[in-house]
Amino acid sequence: MCGIVGFVGNEQAAPIVLEGLSRLEYRGYDSTGVAVYAPEKGLQVRKAKGRLQVLSDQLHGGVDLPGTMAMGHTRWATHGVPSDVNSHPQVSTNGRFAVIHNGIVENYMEIKEFLMDHGVQFVSETDTEVVAQLLDYLYDGNLLETVEKMLHRIRGAYSFGIICADEPDKMVGVRKDSPLLLGYGEGFNFFASDVTAFIDRTREVSYLDTNEIAVVTREGIQVYNEYLEPVEKERHHVDWDISAAEKGGYAHFMLKEIMEQPEAIRKTISPRIQNGRVVLDDLHYEADYLNNLDKIYIIACGSSYHVGMAAKYSLEKLLRKPVEVALASEFRYCDPLVTDRTLAIVISQSGETIDTLTAMREAKRLGARVLSIVNVVGSTIARASDDVLYTWAGPEIAVATTKAYSTQLAVIDLLALNFAQTMGTIDQAEYDAILSDLQAIPDKLEQVLKQKDEIAYFASLYFNQSSIFFIGRHLDYAIGMEGSLKLKEISYIHSEAYAAGELKHGTISLIEDGTLVVALASYTPLFEKMISNVVEVKSRGAEVVGLTVDSHSEEMSKTADHIITVPDIHPMLLPSLNVVPMQLFAYYVALQRGCDIDKPRNLAKSVTVE
Ligand code: F6R
After folding, report:
1. H/E segment holding residue 74
2. Which of 107, 205, 261, 608 lies 20 to 30 Å from 279, alpha-carbon distance?
3. Is 304 in the pocket of ligand 1 (CB under 6 A)?
């Protein structure tokens, strides 16, 4: 995710801000920038695509930029490819306002059009420049009031750092649903997106709440609510060391990323839902084209392939078109049946997986139109596809994917609804029901995450198993596959996922006294059949952890040894909730076994060799 750091004090500010940015590098980024205010030079902005070192070398570690107030940013591209011009800070045309920004301004297009109608010219593709220009348009000589007016014009999830050249020695920090902290020192003060940015200089912090505005000067920090009434902030002393601070206090990036999933899904879906409809601005698929498709191919590897397995069920159900899911490494060698009436959906977190990239090129060569679902903006797969839908999960650092997987699922749900509406294969009541439940996922996930201590307890019972089985039917089977992969990759326990109906065709011979079976039984139409499968394995000596929805918990607890429940939701959306207990279970089992969770042996985050 992007990083923000701002400093005002009595020392030269740019070196301090560059140092702060270097502590945010672990979060991942593709470009950097700083804005510095000095009375004799005014507001100066320097930006560079690529590593922080590039910018730092250009500025001799910041020494070239005089001034005692500065703010800096590490950008992870969302709106517009990584480039010097799209990097932050973004500046208003007359150079009065500089803005750095984490998050997304959802209605930036309508504000941009409004400002263009008033003669404003834009140089970048970013939503952030829209905010800088809007501030300038609204400016009436009072920075605080102007920021307040700006906040009432924008929608989204964001935090901002703002400097106004006309009001020196004062920075403004604002937050809505994207973290921003304040750091208090003697003769200096900070704001930052992450305590790591300033932990070497102060450990006295407070946390901005949503819609609060902080005015930061070297003498002090005053916080206001959205109506500009002063707010007293509680201060906290942070005693984490640097490495714990990087992980936001979590022991591992994987756990941090698991916990970030509600926010990541919110960011991915909310800008794309407008007035009760899914709006995918970047896609232009006509009803004729979609209705004439002979097939949809989903091509991916690993966890992204498992998203494809879940997507098959929902796309076939809503679109009534055949969906084939292919492992990328197999696809290109299997002489695939692709025509110019085939749509290939390619899923990749990194956008650089070589198997997926080459399979995608093959699909294109055979005539398919390629739509990719990618997390890394501007990556090779994103650039090489005909259309791209980004997941806005932010950078994923743990090798085992969690939040990227969840946001891929969310994008598939958006796509299924959007295509079904275009094709006329869904009625309005069903559309509304799914869309409303889709928007409820982040809140329901917060409830699921509250069970983490209970799941940690189950992990403590079973971490010594030599083999663990996941069984499920329909969408639960697809999630079982992901649960099994998560477990084996980070805990090194052998594990397999089976379609529960297949057990009697061979697999059940593996079950013996004490074998752990994780039974996913959340899909209501097949719940009773799953209960029969649980009885089958229990009567062969298995211990069963059952996962189901709240409405089946009583029934499930009569059969399983332990149960985990998730809130009821439209069946098509079950994977988004069910996968999280699987991730937590894998995490806590690996923790008990003392594994290197964020960097499992033999694995790499991005697989760029065949
Ligand atoms: C598992 C995992 C891998 C990736 C796979 C594809 O936790 O992360 O299985 O899903 O290597 O990677 P992307 O999605 O980057 O193409």
Report:
1. strand 69-75
2. 261
3. yes
The SS3 assignment for 564 reads strand
- Alpha-carbon distance 495 to 465, whole Å? 10
- Nearest ligand 1 atom to alpha carbon 606: 15
What's the chain's average pLDDT? 94
Q: Is 403 a catalytic residue?
A: no
- Measured CA to CA, the distance from residue 588 to residue 605 in angstroms comes to 20
Q: How far is the CA of 576 from the centre of ligand 1 (A)?
A: 17
SS3 259: helix
608 pLDDT band, cuts 50/70/90, is low
Distance 487 CA to ligand 1 centre (A): 14
Mean pLDDT of 240-255: 82
Q: Where are the beta strands (DSSP E) in 228-338?
A: 230-231, 236-237, 273-274, 277-278, 295-300, 323-327
Catalytic one among 2, 164, 301, 595?
2
Q: Please give the number of the atom of ligand 1 that sits closest to the Cα of 305.
A: 10
pLDDT digits (tens, 9 = 90+) for 148-162: 999 999 998 889 999
Across the range 551-575, mean pLDDT stands at 97
For residue 7, give the nearest of 231, 232, 161, 206 by alpha carbon.
161
Quote the pLDDT of residue 607. Answer: 77
Mutate to test the pocket of ligand 1, among 607, 608, 609, 610 (most ligand atoms within 8 A of CB): 607
Render pLDDT for 285-298 as a digit per residue (tens, 0 to 9).
999 999 999 999 99
Is residue 275 exposed (0-12), middle (13-18) or buried (19+ Cβ within 10 Å)?
Answer: exposed
**Residues 468-490: what's their mean pLDDT?**
97
Kindly report the pTM of this predicted structure: 0.81
Query: Sign (positive/negative) of CA torsion 5, 7, 12, 16?
Result: negative
Q: Whose CA is nearest to atom 4 of ligand 1?
A: 302
- Ligand 1 atom closest to the Cα of residue 356 is 16
Query: Do strands 494-499 and 171-176 pair parallel, antiparallel, or not at all (unpaired)?
Result: unpaired
**Known catalytic membership, residue 2:** yes
Separation CA 245–CA 231 (nearest Å): 26
pLDDT digits (tens, 9 = 90+) for 586-598: 999 999 999 999 9
Distance CA(487)–CA(468), nearest Å, equals: 9
257, 258, 298, 304: residue to mutate for ligand 1 pocket, most atoms within 8 A of CB:
304
User: Cα(552) to centroid of ligand 1, in Å?
Assistant: 33
Question: What residue spans of 424-462 are helical by DSSP H?
Answer: 428-449, 452-462
Using an 8 Å Cβ cutoff, are 36 and 67 in contact? yes
CA of 449 to the centre of ligand 1 (A): 23
DSSP 106-131: TTHHHHHHHHHHTT----SS-HHHHH
| Residue whose entry in the numeric block shows the structure tokens 């000095």 | 38
User: Integer distance in angstroms from the first to the last C-alpha of the chain?
Assistant: 29
Residue whose token pair is 């009885």: 535
